[in-house]
Amino acid sequence: MEGPSLPVRRIAFLVVLLLVAASLPLTLLFTFKAGGAALALAAVVGGTARAVLPDYLCLGLLVRSRQQDVLTMFVLGIAVALLAWKVPGG
Predict the structure, then answer these.
(1) Chain CA centroid to CA 54, Å
(2) Is residue 45 part of a domain?
(3) How far does the chain reach from its first CA to its final CA, in angstroms?
(4) DSSP structural state of residue 64
(5) pLDDT tens, position by position, 39-76
(6) Where are the bilayer-spanning segments (predicted)?
(7) Rounded (5°) CA angle 25-29-34
(8) What are 3-19's pLDDT values in tens digits?
(9) Please, are residues 38 and 54 in contact by the beta-carbon 8 Å criterion?
(10) Domain total for the chain?
């Protein structure tokens, strides 16, 4: 048996990609804070997926070592969330 198909192996990446794609319409239709929250959520979901899922289910999220990927995505997610929250009148 070969294992799961390619779309199944990229499911975490597809979820992150959909969240990133949703951030622009949320920003345009609602507020900058809503779009920023979706973008921050995408980074945190990507970091969580990379932390808990095996490598073969994280295709598209594999960049460097697991530790570096997780740390980078969490730091970026938290930074985007804080910056979006701090936007005045957003």
Answers:
(1) 17
(2) yes
(3) 52
(4) S
(5) 999 999 999 999 999 999 998 899 999 999 999 999 99
(6) 12-32, 38-63, 70-87
(7) 75
(8) 788 888 899 999 999 99
(9) no
(10) 1
